Automatic annotation (TrEMBL):
GO molecular function: heme binding; iron ion binding; monooxygenase activity; oxidoreductase activity, acting on paired donors, with incorporation or reduction of molecular oxygen
Binding annotation for heme: C439
A cellular-component GO term for this protein: membrane
Cofactor: heme
Family (UniProt): Belongs to the cytochrome P450 family.
Cross-referenced InterPro entries: Cyt_P450, Cyt_P450_CS, Cyt_P450_E_grp-I, Cyt_P450_sf, Cytochrome_P450_fung
Primary localization: membrane
CDD domains xrefs: CYP64-like
Keywords of the record: Glycoprotein, Heme, Iron, Membrane, Metal-binding, Monooxygenase, Oxidoreductase, Transmembrane, Transmembrane helix
Protein's name in the database: Cytochrome P450
Domain of life: Eukaryota
Topology of this chain in the membrane: Single-pass membrane protein
Species per Swiss-Prot/TrEMBL record: Psilocybe cyanescens
Length: 490
């Protein structure tokens, strides 16, 4: 007996409906998570901003490792330190890849090592090139730049207190990083390179935002011709702006090298070792550019958050000022070596990393192949998000986690509740990520931020001066992140 055409059509339709309805459903092998809707999965539950707040809420309900369904895709969210340690820190050979983002790949031609899988040559060559330049010892060679830039930061604030504080700080963070990398400072907020950088990052954020064009969810969108796909024009423009910025900096350094006016910058060093490293000019340009991207807004956001916090906590500011005044006095500026004699200032910096991490959800990792963790399957390529904010606000680890209380770091080295067992694995480097992908700029950032914080506290009082923005005392965490910068990876 042969099936009739009608029965084939009915069977086919039933299969199609079954398949469609299974889109968005959570497979039993995945970690738990919020209930799904057919096709949507959890899309309707995910807020467009401050996702870390929702992830933290879900962690309370479903546990430290959850899965979130975005149509047919799966996102894994880790909100406890134990799973970050076991899955990311300890299993780097399996989980140090990145999820593939089509738009980013088109824009950058796959040259961005911060989003390349850790087994490909872009990542390996780029990290090898910078590894000797970012050690705690190596970054000390850039201390004079930090001293110059922090001095200018004080000067700018002193002579322009009416200018939005954020402009001074973002100039400082950008100029420090471009000086270290390329030997080219940006002396003004409106220096051409600073303006170019802001225009480019603004464009890049539009490009990678899922609302721009969800090509990773709906791959067929890739095939729409450019004249009907405004998002492809956006990609093209972003590529143009990115290359213009990255390669103008590279050319600047190349010219310095050719004319014998070396500055000791990091990219000069990479150019010197170019053939030994087997790194092309193209990849060198992207390497330098990615480091600008990684190093600017992170440091800027952290400093801005700190100042905001000190305005909300005048008692902490006073305590830090007293400490600095006692150790440093009024006759000289704080210098890098002072920080070890300033435990309260150190605690303040740790507390701001905890309260408002610059990247509250870090940068997603991914597994190279399907892998097993506890009783769960972690699907190949699925984003694995570290909910850094959530872990740093875990009430089991931190007493009164929502309170700005630097003293917690004077009571215990990790700021955790006194007396709790050490098997929670928290580490002070968590705000810088995990495993093989741990932030390569960590020591450089710490050196510069330590000096900036000491000097700001030494030089100024901070208080709101009114104006159109609401008084910071009333702000909640979302307001703070919004104010600090629109560019955070949330
Ligand atoms: C307050 C300062 C900073 C914070 C909080 C921070 C945080 C982070 C985090 C959370 C990650 C993701 C790590 C992971 O995937 O697990 C990361 C990666 C990265 N950061 Fe930073 N960062 C800072 C400063 C810097 C600086 C100064 C640079 C450049 C000099 C930099 C360059 C990078 C790069 C290139 C990556 C990607 C690494 C890779 O994928 O292999 N960051 N950072």
């Amino acid at each position: 007996m042969y099936p009739t055409l009608t029965s084939l059509v009915v069977l086919g339709a039933a299969w199609l409906i079954y398949k469609l309805l299974s889109i968005g459903r959570r497979d039993k092998s995945l970690p738990p998570g919020p209930p799904t809707l057919p096709i949507l999965g959890n899309i309707h539950l995910i807020p467009p901003k401050f996702t870390f707040l929702k992830f933290s809420e879900w962690a309370q309900e479903y546990g430290g490792i959850i899965s979130v369904k975005v149509a047919n895709q799966t996102i894994i969210v880790l909100s406890d330190m134990k799973s970050v340690k076991e899955l990311l820190d300890d299993r780097i050979s399996e989980t140090s890849s990145r999820p593939f983002l089509y738009a980013l790949d088109v824009v950058t031609g796959g040259n961005v090592f911060s989003f390349a899988p850790a087994d490909n040559h872009v990542w390996k060559t780029s990290r090898k090139a910078i590894q000797p330049l970012v050690t705690p010892q190596a970054v000390q060679t850039h201390l004079p730049i930090s001293e110059t830039e922090t001095t200018q930061l004080l000067y700018d604030i002193l002579h322009g207190p009416e200018v939005d504080f954020r402009s001074h700080v973002s100039r400082f963070a950008f100029s420090f990083i471009t000086s270290v990398l390329f030997g080219k400072p940006a002396p003004r907020y409106n220096s051409p390179e600073s303006t170019q950088y802001r225009e480019y990052t603004h464009q890049l954020l539009k490009t990678v935002s899922p609302e721009a064009a969800p090509v990773d969810l709906i791959p067929i969108l890739k095939y729409i011709p450019e004249r009907w796909a405004p998002f492809k024009q956006l990609w093209r423009e972003t590529r143009r702006l990115q290359r213009a910025l990255y390669f103008s900096f590279l050319e600047h350094t190349e010219q310095k090298v050719t004319s014998g006016n070396k500055t000791g910058s990091m990219i000069e060093d990479v150019l010197r070792r170019q053939s030994e490293l087997g790194i092309s000019r193209e990849l060198t340009g992207y390497l330098g550019g990615i480091l600008i991207d990684g190093g600017t807004d992170t440091s800027s956001a952290l400093l801005q958050s700190l100042v905001l916090r000190l305005m909300k906590s005048p008692a902490s500011l006073r305590k830090a000022q007293n400490e600095v005044d006692t150790v440093v006095g009024k006759k000289r500026l704080p210098v890098s070596s002072d920080v070890s004699a300033l435990p309260y200032v150190q605690a303040l910096i740790k507390e701001i990393h905890r309260m408002t991490p610059a990247g509250p959800v870090g940068v997603p990792h991914a597994a190279f192949t399907d892998c097993q963790y506890r009783e769960y399957t972690i699907p190949k390529g699925a984003p694995i998000i570290i909910n850094i904010w959530g872990i740093m606000h875990d009430p089991d680890l931190f007493e009164r986690p929502d309170e700005f209380w630097p003293e917690r770091y004077l009571l215990t080295p990790d700021g955790t509740r006194p007396g709790i067992e050490k098997d929670y694995n928290i580490r002070s480097t968590l705000p810088f990520g995990s495993g093989k992908r741990l932030c390569p700029g960590m020591h450089l950032a710490n050196m510069n931020l330590n000096l900036a914080v000491m000097r700001l506290i030494w030089a100024f009082d901070f208080a709101p001066i009114g104006g159109p923005i609401p008084q910071p005392e009333k702000w909640n965490v979302a307001d703070e992140y919004t104010y600090v910068r629109a560019n955070l990876i949330t």
